[in-house]
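re: that chain from earlier
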Amino acid sequence: MLKELRQKRPLVHNITNYVAAQFVANGLLALGASPLMSDAIDEMQDLAKISDALAINIGTLNDRAILCAKEAIKHYKALNKPIVLDPVGCSASALRYNTSLELLESEGVSALRGNAAELGSLVGISCESKGLDSKHSATPIEIVKRAAQKYSVIAVMTGKIDYVSDGKKVLSISGGSEYLTAITGAGCLHAATCASFLSLKKDPLDSMAQLCAFYKQAAFSAQKKC
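^ sequence. v structure.
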């Protein structure tokens, strides 16, 4: 898929947090995709026409970001283009949780990507969390499968082992590097990369599994050079 992605060079629109925006843009360029970073509400309709996919990250949430995300989903949904939601920290505050629910209930989101605490929160499974990382008591398979079923999305749960589900099947991907948890923006870039892989219009479950495997391999290769 990576070869095909680099041939297509999909334009990935990111409504992301300002802490990681540059990291995400550079990561997409290195991958072979083209980043587009915009949260100007009035251009969402125009950008939806030219972009291949949309990635929404609520890491630095505010009123402007919420309105922009809703407007963008409306236009990307109308054009049947893939949308990835990264509900950063939705288990930490009512605003993040409620915003994530609103975006998911718009029925335009194609893939939901988060850690165990975030996905668990959205399906009513309590997980112990600290910051944006998490330790979960429910089984990962239960969490990711329920998330996929509840919101009719491909659910991607990242961690030491990644889990991907369409609500029926659950795939697991191991490997990677513990250094990912020490890098600000690693999860944000993961969500944007999810959008780039989905833009190829292949089987979405398989695409997300391949993406997770690729991301973990890239992290492992980078660790070996440290």
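The beta strands are 11-15, 34-37, 53-57, 83-86, 111-114, 127-130, 133-136, 154-157, 162-165, 170-173.
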